[in-house]
Design goal:
Oligomer: heterodimer
Number of strands of chain B: 4
Structural class of chain B: mainly alpha
Number of helices of chain A: 11
CATH architecture of the largest domain in chain A: 3-Layer(aba) Sandwich
Number of domains of chain A: 2
Radius of gyration of chain A: 20 Å
Structural class of chain A: alpha/beta
Number of domains of chain B: 2
Shape of chain B: globular
Strand order of the largest sheet of chain A: 6-7-8-3-9-10-11
Strand content of chain A: 15-25%
Distance between the termini of chain A: 11 Å
CATH superfamily of the largest domain in chain A: P-loop containing nucleotide triphosphate hydrolases
CATH topology of the largest domain in chain A: Rossmann fold
Strand content of chain B: under 5%
CATH class of the largest domain in chain A: Alpha Beta
Number of helices of chain B: 16
Largest sheet of chain B: 2 strands, antiparallel
Helix content of chain B: over 70%
Helix content of chain A: 25-40%
Chain lengths: 283, 356
């Protein structure tokens, strides 16, 4: 992995698209996250890895607004969004997919993706009911055109009229990604986009993610368990274990890190016992 | 490019506009238009009783559509729909008695009922499922009590007189003319609801029903849409109630009980939850069921069954029981309702005679 990749140098906080500062999340006595800080530069493809229960999805939930962190702050484009409601975050440009499929099962694929355009559409229940009068039809058709581009990009043309709940697993994953892309987010959070896929589907999905990042210019935070994919396509990687940040850095460096190996092999790691700051890897 | 068959054997549409039409093909649309025209000539030869049944289907169908938007499309529950129907009736009677022209009063009554529905829908922003059901039950009893006490508005226990429907000085209150009034409202409300469901807010309602967490991530404000569903639902109920009031000429609190609310639920379950036309099919079924029961009791009169069960005396109870039975049978054998059955029939004929 070349060190000249955009964002790989570790952007300064000021120019960061997302700046997560000292996030802690507790559920009663359970510490899901403890003092996690990181930042993601515009245009970066950032991966979060870690063993099961490490707090990766909790981290995404703090960014997307499902959870409000017990302590710490989340800044998006320099603005504090820690307490912003999830539906408001869609409008400022944060989109996400879910680990477990979260499509609208009874709607068509097309309608699912159109819901992604919700914050960009202006027609309401009144103009929507009148449809032909008041411009709702015109607006719907304009947005349909954009949605078709997303459908083309994810190669799901053949199922656009199918009911989402009847699709195969791999296709549903693609539809879910399409729905998040239709939001036109600046930052897209992908929670295990390749879980449960075979090798071919994984390769397709990896290609799609790289295209999203490079051609569509979206900043991506991805949680993924497939180390091969993560190390191949990520610009930077952060490792979480037991809710704490172990390391953050270039994929090659993270892979070589002894703490990471200990975390995955299940050995005792003194770093987790002490209240030390995470190891900073220089790029 | 328009398609001149009932069901096209392929997808020939070449524009997004053609792909987003209400009817899949031009022929289906023509059939629907033909059905409306056929209904338009019905008053020329149908008996007054038949017309009254059709009028009943109309105003109940509009109210049922409202409940279906709430229950079928946005996935919430209301067991107080009858009082919103009633509120629309009282509001329209009140407005018309204040001098508002009846056609305008009907629409305004819908708007008033929307406001009341929004108020009683506020708990929906917070609670779901059974808890919401109980909250709507509160609406049922509070409004029922309000109707009895608010004499200035409803005439109290005596009820309120609703002036006959007049338009530009013409009296349209006889069954023969009122049929057209109801038909007009049915066409407009059903078109409106169909349009709503293929535009932004309708999709948001369905999204909230199917997966509220991801709907929220897509930018849908849950509290807003859950409450809005109550508002829209009440609007349709109010229009239906207002049409009823001016048809009967009199609005009374009697009959607006919880049984009536549950009957509305029965209509949409039988017709098909989350289906626009299903709301109408369910209403037609519910209106015709008592007719069929009466006819059956008449046919069986004098037989051994009649002597054993005293069908003539027990006909009222028999009707109630049959409604209950119909709901149970539908829940078991056709939980998606008549609308789903209709789709399957169409699919069967599409492939006929090679259904494999």
């Amino acid at each position: 992995m070349s060190t000249t990749t955009p964002g790989a140098q570790g952007a300064s906080h000021a120019s960061a698209l997302l700046d997560v500062r000292d996030i802690s999340l507790r559920f009663g006595g359970l510490k899901a996250l403890t003092n996690v800080s990181f930042h993601v530069a515009p245009g970066e493809l950032f991966s979060i890895i870690g063993p099961n229960g490490a707090g990766k999805t909790s981290m995404l939930n703090c960014i997307s607004g499902r959870y409000t962190p017990t302590e710490g702050r989340v800044f998006f484009q320099g603005k504090d969004v820690t307490r912003l409601k999830p539906n408001k975050r869609a409008a400022i440009g944060i989109g996400r997919t879910f680990q477990n499929l979260a499509l609208f099962g009874h709607m068509s694929v097309l309608d699912n993706i159109m819901v992604g355009r919700h914050h960009l559409l202006k027609n309401n229940f009144l103009t929507g009911s009148l449809y032909w009068i008041g411009g709702a039809q015109k607006e719907e058709l304009e947005h349909r055109r954009v949605v078709e581009e997303v459908i083309d990009f994810l190669e799901i043309q053949h199922v656009r009229k199918a009911t989402a709940g009847t699709l195969s697993y791999g296709l549903r994953k693609r539809v879910e990604l399409a729905r998040a892309v239709a939001l036109e987010p600046k930052l897209i959070l992908l929670d295990e986009p390749m879980a449960g896929m075979n090798q071919e589907e994984k390769e397709d999905m990896a290609r799609t993610i790289v295209d999203l990042n490079e051609e569509w210019g979206m900043t991506i935070i991805m949680i993924e368990h497939d180390m091969g994919v993560v190390m191949d396509i990520s610009h930077r990687v952060m490792v979480l274990d037991f809710g704490k940040k172990l390391v953050e850095g270039l994929p090659a460096d993270v892979l070589a890190n002894e703490h990471v190996r200990k975390a995955y092999l299940g050995e005792e790691d003194p770093l987790l016992e002490e209240e030390t700051s995470p190891v900073a890897l220089s790029a | 490019m328009a398609i001149d068959t009932m069901r096209a054997c392929g997808d020939y549409r070449t524009s997004y506009a053609a792909d987003q039409t209400i009817f899949a093909t031009r022929l289906t649309m023509l059939f629907c238009v033909a059905a409306v025209i056929l209904l338009c000539v019905l008053p020329l030869f149908a008996s007054r009783y038949t017309l009254s049944l059709f009028i009943q289907m109309g105003y109940l169908g509009i109210a049922a559509l409202g409940l279906n938007i709430l229950v079928g499309f946005s996935g919430q529950i209301s067991i107080g729909h009858a009082v919103f129907f009633g509120f629309g009736g009282f509001a329209s009677a009140y407005l018309a008695n204040q001098g508002v022209p009846v056609p305008l009063a009907i629409v305004l009554a819908g708007v008033w009922t929307t406001v009341v529905g929004l108020i009683f829908g506020l708990p929906a922003a917070r609670v779901k499922g059974l808890y919401l059901a109980i909250a709507t039950l509160a609406a049922q009893f509070i409004l029922q009590d309000f109707f009895v006490r608010a004499e200035w508005f409803t005439g109290g226990t005596h009820g309120a007189m609703a002036p006959p429907f007049t338009l530009f000085g013409y009296d349209l209150s006889s069954d023969q003319y009122y049929f057209y009034v109801v038909l007009f409202f049915v066409v407009v409300t059903y078109l409106g609801a169909t349009n709503l469901m293929r535009s932004r807010d309708g999709r948001a309602l369905i999204a909230v029903r199917d997966h509220y967490l991801s709907a929220e991530m897509m930018g849908v404000n849950l509290a807003k849409y859950r409450t809005m569903a109550f508002g829209i639902s009440s609007f349709y109920a109010g229009i239906g109630g207002a049409l009823y009031a001016h048809y009967v000429g009199f609005m009374s609190v009697e009959g607006l009980d919880i049984l009536f609310s549950i009957q509305f639920l029965g209509m949409i379950i039988i017709g098909g939850l989350g289906s626009i036309m299903g709301s109408l099919m369910g209403t037609v079924f519910m209106v015709l069921l008592p007719e069929a029961t009466g006819w059956l009791a008449g046919a069986l009169s004098g037989s051994a069954l009649d002597q054993a069960l005293h069908l003539k005396d027990g006909i009222t109870y028999l009707r109630e029981m049959l409604i209950g039975l119909a709901i149970i049978l539908f829940l078991i054998f056709e939980p998606d309702g008549l609308a789903h059955r209709w789709k399957q029939i169409k699919a069967y004929w599409k492939l006929y005679p090679f259904s494999y």
